[in-house]
Amino acid sequence: MSIRTLIRGGLVITAADELHADVLVEDGRVTALAAHGSDTAEGWTAGAGRVLDASGKYVIPGGVDAHTHMELPFGGTFASDTFETGTRAAAWGGTTTIVDFAVQSVGRALREGLDAWYDKADGKCAVDYGFHMILSDVNEGTLKEMDLLVDEGITSFKLFMAYPGVFYSDDGRILRAMQRATGNGGLIMMHAENGIAIDVLVEQALARGETDPRHHGEVRKALLEAEATHRAIQLARVAGSPLYVVHVSAEEAVAELAAARDKGLPVFGETCPQYLFLSTDNLAEPDFEGAKYVCSTPLRPREHQAALWRGLRTDDLQVVSTDHCPFCFKGQKELGRGDFSKIPNGLPGVENRMDLLHQAVLDGHITRRRWIEIACATPARMFGLYPQKGTIAPGSDADIVLYDPRAEQVISARTHHMNVDYSAYEGKRVTGRVDTVLSRGELVIDRREFTGRAGHGTFVPRSTCQYL
Asked: Which of 85, 202, 326, 434 could form a disulfide with 419 if both were Cys (CB 3.0 to 4.6 A apart)?
């Protein structure tokens, strides 16, 4: 059992409120909040085994990153963060829960893929974790397995309209999975890009000798993201299924989501920090440096960013996750020298999300409460974790971050804790930094020192989407 802890003197920020309050933590959960300086709060001091001074700091819920890929096999290699290194980096960045993707291999059962991911994570994680299930092979057997996984707390299923020959599902398979989810309460997550058309454009670009990383963004056209988003929405309407579109990057795709939501459809969208802060300018960096920024959906021209920020303000986009899928520049991204289509797709970011979004508050893009909403509360609600995760309230897990809103830092691979040899945000100056992190009442970061351990994090079964 964790030590009885009192967090004193901070500004508690949740998606709903900002209040100067002290927070009492017992047995790994939030027990109570009381106004700072009140008789109630003062009465807690004597019985506390640990008092954390949050004066001048924000007291915020631990971040919920609902889109990570630890140890993901891709393009002949594996994502460079293990569950141990990746969750430790998450903690450093103020994220206390991740939801990672277990992968079904074609021709194999969902159970086999899920068990492989249980094995990867068990006893390794510094913070709590859950799983989504990637459906690579929709058939009668796997459709039945979906029901069993929902009962087990794996309540979301990802399908791909991209990557023919690897993860791709055709419209018929997608429709069948959506129909099954309608019956069992699962949430369908969609990688919405027209992979069949993209492969034609890749082949044509390579035939013209266009092999540099910047061409990755040019062939994965925004219109093909928008077309796939539109098609996914219509298939979900036919199936009567909710839909969550992952890593939305293009203005045209946001417009498709907004139009669906204006009709009252249960359609949701996620974007990621890379689309809010990076652009095709990064993909075009010389000397193959652009390979560091190859991900799918790809980075877009900078003009798309305004639509993404607007979508976050108007709630046409609800969540910011990272799609954390790191590959080292040396030896991994370099697999694509001379052929951009062989560059492993993915960026590191699990450690940077909360800080980048705080900078967005300072830059006037979002409010403080919206910061917590899109990074903590909404992902917890979307994926059946609220109010255990995503808020600071009596009964919630004591996943709490003491955040210094005035500390300045420069993001760099020299100082980050992700197991990757570059930073996608190298040299970016931001204001705001995690000071102390509790996970279920245990200190995992104590005044900028890692005090956690592999195996503290536990698997968290999830209920179904709380927006339905």
From this structure: 85
* Strand 400-410 relative to strand 58-61, pairing: antiparallel
pLDDT digits (tens, 9 = 90+) for 397-453: 999 999 999 999 999 999 999 999 999 999 999 999 999 999 999 999 999 999 999
Separation between Cα atoms, residue 241 and residue 179, nearest integer Å:
7
Q: Give tens-digit pLDDT for 362-405.
A: 999 999 999 999 999 999 999 999 999 999 999 999 999 999 99
Strand 63-68, strand 95-103: pairing: parallel
The label of the residue with tokens 């082949």 reads: 203
Q: Is the pTM of this model over 0.85?
A: yes
Contact 63, 368 (CB under 8 A): no
Q: Whole-angstrom Cα distance, residue 217 to residue 215? A: 5
For 140, the token pair is 């009668």
Instruction: Assess contact for 270 and 321: CB atoms under 8 A.
Output: yes
3-state secondary structure the chain: CCCCEEEECCEEECCCCEEEEEEEEECCEEEEEEECCCHHHHHHCCCCCEEEECCCCEEEECEEEEEECCCCEECCEECCCCHHHHHHHHHHCCEEEEEEEEECCCCCCHHHHHHHHHHHHCCCCCCEEEEEEECCCCCHHHHHHHHHHHHCCCCEEEEECCCCCCCECCHHHHHHHHHHHHHHCCEEEEECCCHHHHHHHHHHHHHCCCCCCHHHHHHCCHHHHHHHHHHHHHHHHHHCCCEEECCCCCHHHHHHHHHHHHCCCCEEEEECHHHHHCCHHHHCCCCCHHHHHCCCCCCCCHHHHHHHHHHHHHCCCCEECCCECCCCCCCCHHHHCCCHHHCCCCECCCCCHHHHHHHHHHCCCCCHHHHHHHHHHHHHHHCCCCCCCCCCCCCCECCEEEEEEEEEEECCCCCCCCCCCCCCCCCCEEEEEEEEEEECCEEEECCCCECCCCCCCCECCCCCCCCC
Contact status, residue 94 vs residue 437, Cβ threshold 8 Å = yes
Structure tokens given for 301: 């021209």
